[in-house]
Amino acid sequence: MKITKIETLVCNARMRNWIFVKVLTDQPGLYGWGEATLEWHTRGVIGAIQDLEQLLIGEDPTRVEYLWQVMYRQHFWHGNGIVRGTAISGIDIALWDIVGKVHGVPCHKLWGGPVRDTIRLYSHLGGGKMEDFYETTPGDANRFADLAIKTVEDGFTAFKTMAVPETMPLEGLKPVKYAEACVSAMRDAVGDEIDIMVDCHARPSPRMGHLFAQALDPYGLYWFEEPCWPEAADDIAAIQRAVKTPIATGERLVGIHAFRDLLEKRACSVIQPDITHCGGLSEARRIAALAEAYRVAMAPHNPQGPVSTAASIEFGFATPSYIICEAVHRDVPWRKDVVSEGFEVEPKGRIVRPNSRPGLGIEINEKEVAKHPFEQELPQRSFYSDGSPGDW
Fold first, then answer.
1. 336 pairs with which residues across the strands?
2. Residue 353's beta-bridge partner residues?
3. Catalytic residue among 124, 301, 329, 372
4. Residue ranges in the chain modelled with pLDDT below 70
5. Which residues are CB-neighbours of 291 under 8 A, at least 6 positions away?
6. What gap in Å lies between CA 84 and CA 68, rounded to an integer?
7. Domain spans of the chain, in order of start
């Protein structure tokens, strides 16, 4: 069995272009699906996949670890950068899909079988619609409460929100009080039985992140995410030590070495590798083993397309430290049109039962994908009140 070709299919999803990776073999009807979505870098990722294809043509697709090492090591610049890491990830996910199909079992059974019966999903506030989740200009805190109620009515028992506004490196009480008002309104609206996460998107400075974390500590958040730049691991660790709320981070880190440093510093309670960026399922499994040694929970970052979600769910069923799966369901109306999924979601509680189909259990409808060709992503520019560029 040999790899004959690697194709990329782009499906525009407004805020990002989903990049589906299809690894074809010389066995009729045998191929694997992966995903390498990276917003604002679609062309770069596709080019990186085309470069890697030259290393893989003619190779046995079931030698997944061997091929991962080839992709990572057999060029002077290791696959640590986000574009190359994403390209490796997309191909690696597709290779595991092939291995599952070869053996006729879901991927989670390749990794020792399920360690749990169900996986809980959490939603973005508003279901993933950019205008609802990515709050860029402070508004009425009651809007957050209304969206929280709607999310619970959709069946979710947990959701994530960006209630922390953009701030300059140092500001006064106004943004902190605003964030507190938003979280208070959501907690009052949904009660203590619903888990609320707050995502800072790494926009605050370490000091502002610290102030936000302390202000929101009384509200019993499930986690407080990316309180400052991921490069500032020592500051993230200081924030984690200063509050009771679990700190989550890691979605922008590529490779096990970055997570090793994060865990050694005891910087967080939840690590969030993105399977489509960190090095694929192979590297995510290594990161999971490291997290298990530190007894730190895992909740992979997953706001991308449906192949990423299927991969995260397969990974979750075989990973002891995995606690919850990120999911979006209202980002674009054609999400369900482009994919057939093997797992089942119970509407009440948004609980996932294991996939029973081989591999990732998904099939991409290429005709539907073709209806939504590449479009440049919507601009997400951010400027502070003085006109200087900020972090989006």
1. none
2. 344
3. 301
4. 127-139
5. 259, 263, 271, 297, 298, 321
6. 12
7. 3-105, 110-358
Full-model pTM: 0.96
Class of domain 3-105: alpha beta
| pLDDT at residue number 108 | 98
Is residue 210 among the annotated active site residues?
Answer: no
pLDDT in tens, 42-81: 999 999 999 999 999 999 999 999 999 999 998 888 888 8
Q: Which residues have a Cβ under 8 Å from the Cβ of 246 and sit 6 or more positions away?
A: 221, 222, 223, 224, 240, 268, 269, 270, 297
Chain length of the chain:
392
CA distance linking residue 355 with residue 211, whole number of Å: 42
pLDDT number for residue 378? 79
Predicted pLDDT of residue 136: 42
Token pair 């991969």 in the structure block, residue: 311
Residue 169 identity: P
Q: What is the pLDDT of residue 139?
A: 62
Tokens of 180: 């507190």
**Correct CATH for 110-358 of 3.90.226.10, 3.40.640.10, 3.40.30.10, 3.20.20.120:** 3.20.20.120
Query: Which tokens go with 211?
Result: 């102030």
- Give the residue from 309, 213, 215 showing the smallest Cα distance to 268: 213
Measured between alpha carbons, how far is 86 from 270 in angstroms, rounded to an integer? 22
Q: Strand runs (DSSP E) across the chain, as ranges?
A: 3-13, 16-25, 31-35, 119-124, 158-161, 195-199, 223-225, 247-249, 270-271, 297-298, 325-327, 339-341, 344-346, 351-353, 362-364
- The alpha carbon dihedral of 307, 98, 115, 250 has a sign of negative
Q: Is 277 a catalytic residue?
A: no
Q: What is the CA radius of gyration of the chain?
A: 20
> What is the spatial order of strands in the sheet that 3-13 belongs to?
3-13, 16-25, 31-35
CA atoms within 13 A on the CB side of 112: 9
* Residue 208, both tokens: 């502002």
Ramachandran category for residue 234: left, alpha or beta (phi over 0 → left; psi -120 to 50 → alpha): alpha
Residues 6+ apart with CB under 8 A from 97: 23, 32, 33, 34, 107, 359, 360
> Cα(156)–Cα(351) distance, rounded to whole angstroms?
9
Q: Residue 70 CA to chain centroid, in angstroms?
A: 25
